[in-house]
Amino acid sequence: FEDQWLAVLTLAFFLLDPWTITYAHTALPEPVVVFWGSVALYACARFGRNLSLGWALVCGLALGLSFLTKLWLCFPFALACVTIFAAKLVAGPRWQALTGALLAFVAFFVCASSHLLLVLWWTPADLTHWLHTYFIYTFSSRTGGIGFDPVMWFHPWWSYSAFLFKATFFGLPAVLIAAYKLAQKRETVVLAVLLAILSPFLVLSFF
Known about the structure:
By secondary structure, this protein is mostly helical.
C-alpha cells in the first residue's frame, strides 16, 4: 500500500512538472513514445505477477506503437520489458513465461512492421525507401551526426546526467524516497529495470 501511494505521488509530480506541461503544448513524438513505453512496462509488470497472456499481448502492442511513433527511441522500454521477461524465465514457471515472452514479441513484430506491410500492399515501389529509412538512415544519422547542429547536440560527458537531474528536480523528494525504498528492499529486478530505462543517459554520458 505504501508503494502504491509512492507511485501515485510520483505520477502527480510528473504531471505537474513544468517540463511535462511544456511538452504537452508542443507537437513532439517523445511524450507519445514515453506514454506507450509506460503502458508496455506496466503491462509487462502485471504479466510478471499473474502470468496473464493478455498483459503480454498488451505489452507487445504498446511497444510496437512506441516503435511506430519514433522508431528506435522505444529501446529503453523494450530493454526494461526484456529484463522482466528474463527474470520471470529464471524464477519460473518457465513455460508460461516463455509463452508470454513469445506472444509479446510476435505482437510487437506485427505492430511495428504494420507500416512496412501497408507500404508493401499499397505502394510496393516505396518499400526500398522505407527499409533504408528504418534500418540504415536512422542509425547512420544518429552515429554520424547527419543533419544535426554540433552546438546543439554535442555536450560535455556530464551534460546528460545534468539534464536528467534538471528534468526530475521538481519531483526530487519522490525520487529520493524511491531511491531509499529501492536500497532498502534490494530488489534486483527493479534495479535492472531502472538501469535499462536510464541506459541512454548512462551510455551517452561516456561519449
